[in-house]
Task: structure prediction
Amino acid sequence: MPRYLRLAAATVTLLLLYLAWKYIVPEIMVIIKFIFVLLTPFILAVILAVIIEPFVRFLNEKARLIRPLAIVVAMVVLIGGIGSLLTVLIFRLVKELSDLSVSLPKYINPVQDYINHLIEQGKIFYFRLPPAVTGRFQERVGDVTSWLSDLASSLANSLLHIATALPGAVMIIVVTLIATYFVSRDKKIIVQFWMKYVPAPWGTRTITMGRESINAFLGYLKAQFVLISLTTIQSIAGLQLIGVDYALTLGLLIGFFDLIPVLGPASIYLPWAIWSFISGHTSFAIKLLSIYAFVWGVRQMLEARVVAQSLGLHPLAVLLAMYAGLKALGAAGLILGPILLIIIQAAVKVYFTNRAK
Result:
């Protein structure tokens, strides 16, 4: 092919890719987001049905319960038990947060006094700077103030959105529980229906891919649950041991930050330790750093082994999937991104397995 034709073909290809990325991909993302939102209760139902299946099988085979009754018992014991535990933790968390809101000025005032001291010390240096520098500094302060104002407004809107979304959340929970029962009870009928109406070999392949995706997803959840639970328990125990008030609240907060790749528990421990050093509580800062070092060390020793055994995904791949999901689908993409990555991994695995056969 002549060079000018190859150049023209490359130019047309790049143009088509750009147009697709700009106009087609956003529409596809909107459709995918709508489908995920529409099918969320049923996706959750399939996941819950897989989770309770070993217990259902035990009750059906060992306890001699008929399968429908075994499903109901399993849902009450497992889902009800987890819900009760979460309710107890939430009530305890609310109590500690209420106490913390009363005593919060005691912790905030020293920080404000220290910042005011820094400002007073910096005035001497500030007034010696050229006018252009001080003007730029004032602009940046204005930008920060505007950002904080926007942040406060968005947080208020988010709280209002959460409050208005509660009825919808209750509806999703009810639909999910009902769908879990029917998916677990009629799983063989559902598989037979799918195999009957989906042409071969796609019926078998999609069933295999779905099974691989669910197993991989559950393995990923299990790995993260183990690691985050260890971080939370170690943090609560460590903070309780060194006499920190509201150890449960802070430990759960540290466990929440452990969900976020890269940031992790360091987002709480390091600023807290730095402030303790600055405010003169050197011994307490060393204790905080010791707890963080222990938590970090345990996670580093277990993370590669647990994730590799359960899923085989590198944390960088998970971080990339979460970032891409956040950009494409918003906050929901933080969860949907890794799920999509797991589905792609399962599809590739099924493809190469069938090709090898």
